[in-house]
Amino acid sequence: MKKILLFIVLICAGASFSCNKEVLDKRPLNIISDADVFKDPALINAYLTQIYFDMPVLGNDCNANGAFDGDASWHAFDINDVSDESFPQFRDWNPSNAFTYKYGNLNIGGGLLDWWGYNTVRNINQFLEKLPSSPLPADEVKAKIAEARFLRAFCYFSMVKRYGGIPLITKVQDANEPEETLYPVRATEQAVYDFIIAEAGESSADLPEVVSTDNLGRPSKYAALALKSRAALYAASIAQFGKVELGGVVGIPSSAAQGYYQASFDASQAIIKSGKYALYNADANKAMNFRNIFLVKNNSEVIFAKRHDNVNRDAGGNGWGVDFFNCPRPQAWSRGLYEQSYLDFAESFEMVDGTSGKLDRAALATKLVTTDELWGNRDPRFFATFYTQNTAWKGTKLDFHAGIRLPDGSIKTDGAYNGIPATGEQDYQGTGIGVLKYLDEAHDNMAGANSAWATSAQDWLIFRYAEILLNNAEAAFELGNTAEAITSINQVRTRAGIKTLGALTREQIHHERKVELAFEGQRYWDVRRWRTAVADLSIRWSGIRYILDGASGKFQIQFIENVDGSSRIPQFRQENYYLPITNGRTANNPKLVENPGYK
């Protein structure tokens, strides 16, 4: 990056931490040379701030940036909606790029979750090369270099989990360099993971143990170890369950699996034994306690978060769109309920005694029930993750009913019966289950704040302690240390308020991640690394309808099969374990071999 456009107001607003406003006094807003930038501490900070802003993947793997493309709008939910968790339910609009690609339409043209972050990597490489000659004190240079290395490792992790092996570029390229440098080949997937794991581990040594209040949103030592924990776990399972193709450009030899599990375990253990973090457990009500993990800023569980405020990005803020899009009605666009969970996914949440939460659909079709009878005695995380019929919200109860059952057994779907509207105020054409996780009941979803939709101040939790316990459990189990795995899993289940386990299987570990980390951007990547996505994501899922019985106030339950629509059949194909490099990129660099299965 030869020149920098100093749009400092935008830079400061878009980052997850504050920027020194003395920058505004240094020079008019014009083009400033790199040499000037790395002589000025304020401009150095602005440069690093811009790197955060240029990493939309920090916001739930968003693949775009800006007021209408990043996590300020609906793209924060794409990663959930392309999995078996949910689908985007604005039926006349469906702006999510997940909506199209979920149904077998991912091809060599790409477009799904696409992020080729080499512009950002180049800027980081330049920062790493230029900073040592800056006037900053040596200890500050050391810390900022560690921070930049962490961010570069995060960039590479965001790409390798998408595409497999990619070019490893660790210095600034110059136009006069030889062709083999300017047009690099793809490194092996193993080499990229090794680089990420090494960078995360080494940067952890120079990052602060505790991030100061004025630097919240920057990584600590334990954020780097959390990245190592997650990346090594991904590499291990790819080695264990995947296959090597293209000479190792995709896939990792199975012989490497145990080493990666050990690296993940060691990083998780370092975080656990540090005593710096703990499962959030401040509320007696287990459901409310789980909700507050995502509402209470800087709580004991937060290792690394993307910081948000409640001001729209186009107005100089860093808010995001979770409340406005996912809230129940009323909502300013008369919509809400954008991301709706499949009934099948909601049934994954067990009963408090550890038995299956799957509904007896045949029995329910023959009787009337209350919502307490339908959903009672469930894992409290269910009530913190979903909202549905009779969920308490803003002093009332949500009403999803889609018709009234008359005394003669017929169903009235328009008008009213005995003064009761035939349909409730919530969306009864979707799945019947909204996503409550991250929603703030105090948010004003009727406001179009700052000339756009109302935005949310909840921080996005990139790494939290419960994930580290689950990473620890999975790695320990695959290493043969079942006792350690059970201990970690049971800590999570005890905090949740459900029965602990006396024995453990791989399937139970996978299930616990599915439930605990629901709608946190983890499920899609998990089923890909376990190589179960072809089965798990190629299913015709269902929804639920509540028919209000006019006489008793109970409900007749209807199950809606193929809730995505008769012509929309979820399909994850074998080649989709890697996203395509795309024709555009292979045309620009013919040495970039395309991933298997894309033509």
UniProtKB/TrEMBL annotation:
Domain SusD-like N-terminal: 117-232
Secretion signal, residue range per the UniProt entry: 1-21
GO cellular component: cell outer membrane
Principal subcellular localisation of the protein: membrane
InterPro entries the UniProt entry points to: SusD-like_N, SusD_RagB_dom, TPR-like_helical_dom_sf
Annotated localization: Cell outer membrane
Matching Gene3D superfamilies: 1.25.40.390
Keyword annotations: Cell outer membrane, Membrane, Signal
Domain called RagB/SusD: residue spans: 301-598
Domain of life according to the entry: Bacteria
Record-stated family: Belongs to the SusD family.
Name this protein carries in UniProt: Glycan metabolism protein RagB
Organism the protein comes from: Mucilaginibacter pedocola
